Amino acid sequence: MREFIKRYRLSITTIGPVHIGSGQKYNSKEYIFDREKNEVYFPDIVKLYAYLDDAKKNSFEQFMMRSSTQDNQSDMYNKSANYGSNRGYSKNNTRSNKGQQQQNQGAQRLQSWVKNNITRSITNDHKGQWGGYTLDIGTIGKDKNGNSVQLNEIDAFIKNGFGRPYIPGSSVKGMLRTIFLKYYALQNLSDSKEPPFNIRVSDSREFENSNLIVLQKRDIQFDKEKPSSPPVFRECINSVDSNNDYNVFNFDVSVDMTQDGVENMCGFIKNLEKIAEKVYEEYLYQTEQYEKYREENDLENETGAYFFLGGGSGILSKTYGITDKEIADVLSNNRGFQKAKHKEFYQKNGFSPKVLKTAEHGWVTEMGQVSLSVEEVG
Question: How far apart are CA 21 and CA 155, in angstroms?
Fold first, then answer.
């Protein structure tokens, strides 16, 4: 009897935090940051609104509708008034303007409104009535002046219609395709016709929000003594669960046996662990300049069936068959990365990229790093 579908079970273990974005960003009106407890509370805004009396509802509506642009315009007006009366800025005026900016920023934060209108201390009873969820937050880095980086927007993890996070099969398929193409390039087959990639990958099971953590982007830079900590925060799958065990997610992978190139696909999936190990070995070679940083931070530096899933893991996890010079050119031509001077760094040091993408939550891990295992199930 002819076989139409070949099925495999793919298991992904999170070695580092994984961020798969929904495209949504939480702003400071949608969460409450408790610096003392080192956690972020995301209330259900609808339930929070229903909790309020009519007078507080009116105040809350005005707070939510007030834009940061209005505060900025107010701040600009104050600066203009100072300039008009003083024909310039004194140190006192500058200090006053900075204080006004900080006050405006505070007025835009949900925690300030709650503190001024409901309670100075949010209890579990409040959270029970307001709904939502609470996440731990990892280590917050310092800015150039040695101050803690300000928590503003938080990139949300993708969730289903019930508000539960999950890993889309499309993200896993994209990772597998990158591994496939990288291995394809390593075999010097890039000049021949690229074989079709006829596989389907299921979504993961949904999981609890408590398996997420808020982490700040942390770039280890080859030419800097200390890592860079830009104000980029993401909801990520924590690399370990509440029992301090690695999180493991299972996916059903199926190969359509009626399509062209089926032998290549079945061979690829069946030998995925060995192929991923070769591809990861090449990655370690491409980033060998960071070996001392891996040793200092106890990062994974042995070969194995590892790769990178999701966002924030760097250009090497999303491309194949590209030289260091081409990486520098691509990054230099991207408007968002022009200030980093990737091309100049390559010309000086002879390699690219110039950063290793990591996150810190008690310990340092490479962003998006996972291990892979596979078995045939039918």
Answer: 7
DSSP characters for 230-273? -S-EEEEE-SB-TTSPBPEEEEEEEEETTSTTHHHHHHHHHTHH
Q: What are phi and psi of 76, to 5 degrees?
A: -65, -35
**Minimal CA–CA distance to 141: which of 367, 368, 366, 364?**
364
Report how far Cα 333 is from the mean position of its chain's Cα atoms: 23
Which residues make beta-bridge pairs with 376? 8
Cα dihedral sign for 183, 157, 229, 365?
negative
Q: Contact 157/236 with Cβ under 8 angstroms?
A: yes
CA-based end-to-end distance of the chain: 14
The alpha-helical segments, DSSP class H, found in the chain are: 45-51, 54-65, 68-86, 91-107, 110-117, 124-130, 169-186, 262-270, 272-286, 291-296, 324-333, 342-349
Q: 323 and 184 in contact (C-beta within 8 Å)? A: no
The length of the chain, given as a count of residues:
378
- The answer to whether residues 179 and 307 touch, using CB atoms and an 8 Å cutoff, is yes
Structure-block tokens of residue 368: 């998006």
Q: Tokens in use for 250?
A: 């299972």
pLDDT by residue for the chain (378 residues), tens only, comes to 567 788 999 999 999 999 999 999 999 999 999 999 999 999 999 999 999 999 999 999 999 998 755 554 444 444 444 444 444 444 444 444 444 444 445 558 999 999 999 999 999 999 999 999 999 999 998 888 888 899 999 999 999 999 999 999 999 999 999 999 888 888 765 555 666 788 999 999 999 999 999 999 999 888 787 888 899 999 999 988 777 788 999 999 998 877 666 677 888 899 999 999 999 999 988 888 888 887 777 776 666 799 999 999 999 999 887 888 888 888 888 766 766 788 888 888 888 888 889 998 878 889 999 999 999 997
Q: Could you give the C-alpha distances from 300 to 272, 279, 313, 367, in angstroms and in order? A: 19, 15, 14, 12
**In angstroms, rounded to a whole number, what is the distance separating the alpha carbons of residues 50 and 156?**
24
Q: Return the residue matching tokens 């998006």.
A: 368
